[in-house]
């Protein structure tokens, strides 16, 4: 059994990472509210540093390193946002970062990692290649591995996003987040259940990468073999720590197909005039697909990130 971050630890993490993050706004759209049949509050982590909520967890993990650990820098494997977030947090802290990225990672995300000072090591686009390449990097550099999601300090940092939502004084009936590795969902579920046990926590997940949904239904961790979805930020398998949090604190997981994801993404572009990446649209797609379950509610949705290649929009 893992220990979970407490509310007190999440609040301390929030104070700790202030120099590294933005307090992102909550936006609303009357048109989307009408379509959804409920009040939707979008927490805009697409406006976050490095363009994604991942800035929170990476910053928290780096700040908590000992002086001894900082000497050899940090390393991770990531298809995008965690990579950029860790590279930036490391550079701000004055330490090195080694980032293993699959060759299929979007070019915009590779450019971001380089611009934040990270050293990229490319590998084949599968989990085994990522893990073996990372191990070789860690053996060579003695850098501290900061996992993208299945890590106490990272989950503790991601949990600060929901903390800010609750500090706005909105009495949410439901809070929704996308799920890939589960760091954001796990952190969101912990904060929400500590503050408002009656509030439901629901995840959106792509049908083409539905290991969290299948694991949740089977009550045992089922890894994803060959994920295939436009939501490139959700291709990773659910982490063990996050699976335990989800089994205890998440109320449901809804799946959506790529067409539904693209429609929700386009809706946000057209109605809210903001840039989001496909993974970000998954919770809204899940809400619109299951409208009856949310009728008349106050629903918070975390817009997880906005790092998308504008030359390759799916609409």
Write a compact overview of the structure shown.
This protein has helices at residues 7-16, 30-36, 54-63, 67-71, 81-92, 107-115, 127-141, 152-167, 183-195, 211-218, 240-249, 258-272, 278-289; strands at 26-27, 39-44, 74-77, 97-102, 119-123, 144-145, 174-178, 200-206, 252-256, 298-303. With 315 residues, it is an alpha/beta fold. The longest helix has 16 residues, at 152-167.
Give a count of the beta strands, DSSP E runs of length 2 or more: 10
Q: Largest beta sheet: what is the strand line-up?
A: 1-2-10-7-8-9
- Sheet-strand content, in percent, reads 15-25%
CATH topology of the largest domain: Rossmann fold
The CATH class of the largest domain: Alpha Beta
Shape: globular
Rounded to an integer in angstroms, the radius of gyration calculated over CA atoms is 18 Å
- Total domain count: 2
Alpha-beta classification: alpha/beta
Number of helices: 13
Q: What profile does the largest beta sheet have?
A: 6 strands, mixed
Architecture (CATH level 2) name of the largest domain: 3-Layer(aba) Sandwich
**Portion of residues within helices:** 40-55%
Overall pLDDT score: 96
Keywords:
alpha/beta, Rossmann fold, 2 domains, six-stranded mixed beta sheet, 10 strands
Task: Tell me what the structure shows.
- The chain is of the alpha/beta class and 315 residues long.
- The chain folds into two domains: 7-53 and 151-312, Rossmann fold (3-Layer(aba) Sandwich), CATH 3.40.50; 55-145, Rossmann fold (3-Layer(aba) Sandwich).
- 45% of the residues lie in helices and 15% in strands.
- It is built from 13 helices and ten strands.
- It has helices at residues 7-16, 30-36, 54-63, 67-71, 81-92, 107-115, 127-141, 152-167, 183-195, 211-218, 240-249, 258-272, 278-289; strands spanning 26-27, 39-44, 74-77, 97-102, 119-123, 144-145, 174-178, 200-206, 252-256, 298-303.
- The strands form two sheets. A six-stranded mixed beta sheet has the order 1-2-10-7-8-9, with helices on both faces.
- Strand 4, helix 6 (107-115) and strand 5 (119-123) form a beta-alpha-beta unit.
- The longest helix has 16 residues, at 152-167.
- It is globular, with a radius of gyration of 18 Å.
């Amino acid at each position: 059994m893992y220990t979970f971050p407490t509310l007190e630890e999440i609040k301390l993490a929030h104070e700790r990472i202030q120099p590294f993050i933005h307090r992102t706004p909550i936006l609303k759209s009357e048109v989307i509210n009408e379509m959804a049949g409920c009040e939707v509050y979008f927490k805009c982590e697409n406006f976050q540093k490095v363009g994604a909520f991942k800035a929170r967890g990476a910053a928290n993990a780096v700040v908590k390193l000992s002086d001894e650990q900082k000497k050899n820098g940090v390393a991770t494997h990531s298809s995008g946002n965690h990579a950029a977030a860790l590279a930036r947090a490391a550079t701000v802290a004055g330490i090195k970062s080694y980032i293993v990225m699959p060759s299929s990672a979007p070019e915009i995300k590779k450019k971001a990692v380089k611009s934040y000072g990270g050293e990229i090591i490319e590998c084949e686009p599968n989990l085994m290649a990522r893990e073996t390449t990372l191990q070789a990097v860690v053996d060579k550099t003695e850098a501290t591995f900061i996992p993208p999601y299945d890590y106490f300090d990272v989950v503790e940092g991601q949990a600060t996003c929901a903390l800010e939502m609750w500090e706005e004084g909105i009495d949410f009936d439901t809070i929704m987040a996308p799920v890939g590795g589960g760091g954001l969902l796990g952190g969101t579920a912990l904060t929400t259940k500590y503050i408002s046990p009656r509030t439901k926590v629901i995840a959106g997940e792509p049908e083409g990468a539905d290991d969290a949904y299948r694991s949740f239904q089977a009550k045992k961790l089922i890894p994803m073999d060959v994920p295939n979805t436009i939501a490139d930020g959700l291709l990773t398998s659910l982490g063990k720590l996050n699976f335990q949090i989800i089994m205890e604190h998440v109320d449901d997981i809804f799946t959506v197909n790529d067409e539904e994801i693209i429609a929700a993404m386009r809706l946000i572009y057209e109605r809210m005039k903001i840039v989001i990446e496909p993974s970000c649209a998954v919770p809204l797609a899940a809400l619109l697909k299951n409208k009856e379950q949310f009728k008349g509610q106050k629903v918070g949705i975390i817009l997880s990130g906005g790092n998308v290649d504008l030359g390759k929009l799916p609409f």
